[in-house]
Inverse folding.
């Protein structure tokens, strides 16, 4: 593995040196050729000979040659531009030949000064186009070929340019008609106002029934929606900068040192321990890492892997360490024993973000999860998973892992490319991200979006997200696009508005499943089955990986799993469908099972502190990027609300508020005594908390009641009937 890594690094360095040498060559070629063509008399014998040959062959089109060299220099300097050497060379040749023919055509058509001519190329090829198309049409064809070659060399999207030109012409034709209609409407309004003032008599009172009142309310909401749509800012012209890596601390695990003598001693101790239990084995390889060292053993014939697994506790005792894990490695025909180091180092996020694997990844959903047991950074793509299930006991590093995932995407994507729908029932883990422009909530407009904390609010948001998914499928079907990548590519060509990715992160799924299991499970099932194609991806995390939380329906749609340390073997089987997670050390030690793989990869998760995350968020917020997303979702929400099941549950709200106002207290026992069951009492408590009528301050177990809000709510309900 080390040899492959060295060969890969050597190839990358060689390619980088070749590119730098080529850029220097083209820079000199551009300067020297320009000097020769501008001042041929002072360019010496070689320069004058080069000048005579080029002008003899291409004529005045030779002046394009320094520009072509300059263009090659820019391409080789900008490492982000992909080289297309053969194709670019072909278009360069077409450009200079068509320019030579164009010069000859101009000389014949407009008879300018005799200095303009097309050389040997123009003199021999121009008559062919002249006889085939005629003088003027031939000139047009040659000019079109020249412009096409220039556009290809400069990577100008011709379809987008043509679309924008036609669109601007269409708008210029439609705008006068709209102004006429608007002036006619305003004239009618002035006439009606004058009639009411001077000739209308006494007006009768307008009697509005309930249906008309609802229609007026809907009309008012649509007016508000129109205002949102009109004030939309074009985020494409906003110069957004991705956060720099130096906002994070240096990675102390980048250059970790190992004591070879100590590793050899521990390898011999491991072999001797196995020999004490009549297990013959030889240590083939030692793979040290920042936190864990893996010893690859070749077992004697006839010894099963299960024999080694059965004495893990004895091996741990002999090695004076805990959390030893035995893993088969079929590709090497060895058994790997992963032993924690006596002193580990912290794996930082910065080292992975600065790695070539992360920087060269083109996906906006690239995740820097951590480092493998050999110390190399592990980078994966959320889009290919397409959803991720995370589990781990308290203190195992699950919350830090979620921060790492969010920051990885923030280092790759603009706010108009990726948005986060964050659901945090614990109310403490994700509050640091509440003000970033990437925040998304389909139930409210962009300006009001924030972290979702209440179970009912989360259920409503997930249900609304299903509506967003269905709307996107209809939109993609109109453009005959199979997925979000195809749709955005078509929008880039036609100048349309692209769609952004939506990442849904639920920090504690168990808390939601207790209160609204059916609604949450139904929405997650639909999104997990269909949302990938339209750019919606789910990340579910829980510290209680029981079958009541991670149900069979959820597991079936989440092939990618990430497990931190679990408290039991049963929890490990629930998450990974295999043992192993119970043997992890905690503090970011994880097993990642990619979709389609049979065995998980052991990683040490990248650590990022809240202080570092705060620096990244401050850098993003200081740019004041406009927080925008689809206005159609605002319209859908304003015309909607809770579903029928939610409305039935909300019917219990008014009797509960009256009960609280009368008794001047609130408890589950009180609600159970008046509404009949513990489940109904729990639901009512959740609704009261979500709506803000009651709150429970941190560190106390007593509800605080907002009597003023209850009184106002009851008065409004009485007035509205």
């Amino acid at each position: 593995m080390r040899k492959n890594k060295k060969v890969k690094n050597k190839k990358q360095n060689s390619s980088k040196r070749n590119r730098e040498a080529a850029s220097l060559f083209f820079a000199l070629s551009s300067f020297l050729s320009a000097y020769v063509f501008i001042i041929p008399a002072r360019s010496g014998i070689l320069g004058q000979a080069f000048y005579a040959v080029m002008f003899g062959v291409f004529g005045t089109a030779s002046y394009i040659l320094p520009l072509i060299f300059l263009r090659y220099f820019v391409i080789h300097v900008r490492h982000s531009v992909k080289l297309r050497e053969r194709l670019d060379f072909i278009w360069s040749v077409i450009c200079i030949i068509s320019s030579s023919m164009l010069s000859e055509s101009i000389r014949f058509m407009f008879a300018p000064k005799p200095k303009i001519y097309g050389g040997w190329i123009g003199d021999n090829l121009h008559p062919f186009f002249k006889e085939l198309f005629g003088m003027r049409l031939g000139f047009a064809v040659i000019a079109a070929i020249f412009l096409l070659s220039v556009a290809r060399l400069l990577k100008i999207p011709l379809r987008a340019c043509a679309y924008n030109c036609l669109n601007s012409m269409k708008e210029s034709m439609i705008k006068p008609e709209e102004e006429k209609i608007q002036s006619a409407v305003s004239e009618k309004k002035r006439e009606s106002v004058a009639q009411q003032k001077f000739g209308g008599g006494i007006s009768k009172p307008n009697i509005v029934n309930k249906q008309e009142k609802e229609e007026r309310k809907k009309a008012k909401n649509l007016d508000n929606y129109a205002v949102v749509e009109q004030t939309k800012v074009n985020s494409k012209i906003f110069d957004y900068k991705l956060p720099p890596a130096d906002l994070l601390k240096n990675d102390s695990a980048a250059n970790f040192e190992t004591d070879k003598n100590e590793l050899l001693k521990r390898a011999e101790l491991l072999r001797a321990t196995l020999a004490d239990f009549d297990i013959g084995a030889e240590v083939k390889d030692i793979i040290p890492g920042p936190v864990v060292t893996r010893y690859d053993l070749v077992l004697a014939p006839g010894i099963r892997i299960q024999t080694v697994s059965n004495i893990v506790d004895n091996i741990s005792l002999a090695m004076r360490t805990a959390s030893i894990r035995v893993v088969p490695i079929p590709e090497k025909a060895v058994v790997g024993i992963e032993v924690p180091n006596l002193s580990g180092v912290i794996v930082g996020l910065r080292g992975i973000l600065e790695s070539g694997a992360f920087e060269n990844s083109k996906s906006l959903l690239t995740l820097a999860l951590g480092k493998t047991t050999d110390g190399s950074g592990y980078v994966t793509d959320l889009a290919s998973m397409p959803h991720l299930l995370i589990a781990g006991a308290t203190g195992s590093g699950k919350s830090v892992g979620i921060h790492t995932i969010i920051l990885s995407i923030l280092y790759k994507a603009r706010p108009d490319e990726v948005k986060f729908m964050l659901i945090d029932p614990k109310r403490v883990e994700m509050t640091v991200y509440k003000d970033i422009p990437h925040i998304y909530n389909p139930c409210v407009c962009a300006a009001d979006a924030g972290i979702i904390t209440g179970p009912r609010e989360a259920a409503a948001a997930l249900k609304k997200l299903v509506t967003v998914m269905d709307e996107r499928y209809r939109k993609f079907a109109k453009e005959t696009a199979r997925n979000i990548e195809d749709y955005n590519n078509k929008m880039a060509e036609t100048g349309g508005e692209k769609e952004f990715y939506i990442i849904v992160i639920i920090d504690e799924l168990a808390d939601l499943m207790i209160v609204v299991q059916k609604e949450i499970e139904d929405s997650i099932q639909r999104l997990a089955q269909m949302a990938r194609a339209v750019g919606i991806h789910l990340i579910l995390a829980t510290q209680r990986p029981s079958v009541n939380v991670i149900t069979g329906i959820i597991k079936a749609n989440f092939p990618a799993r990430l497990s931190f340390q679990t408290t039991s073997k049963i929890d490990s089987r629930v998450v990974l469908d295999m043992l192993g997670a119970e043997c992890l050390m905690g503090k970011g030690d994880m097993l990642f099972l990619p979709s389609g793989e049979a065995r998980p990869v052991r990683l040490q998760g990248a650590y990022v502190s809240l202080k570092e995350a705060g620096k990244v968020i401050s850098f993003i917020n200081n740019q004041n990027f406009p927080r925008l997303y689809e206005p159609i979702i605002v319209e859908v929400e304003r015309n909607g609300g809770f579903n029928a099941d939610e409305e039935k549950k909300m019917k219990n709200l008014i009797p509960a508020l009256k009960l609280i106002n009368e008794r001047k207290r609130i408890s589950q026992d009180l609600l159970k005594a008046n509404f009949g069951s513990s489940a109904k009492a729990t639901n009512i408590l959740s609704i009261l908390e979500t709506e803000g009528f009651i709150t429970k301050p941190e560190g106390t177990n007593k509800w605080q009641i907002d009597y003023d809000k209850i009184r106002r709510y009851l008065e409004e309900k009485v007035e509205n009937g």
Observations:
- The chain has four domains: 21-156, 260-340, 349-625, 641-719.
- The chain is about 55% helix and 10% strand.
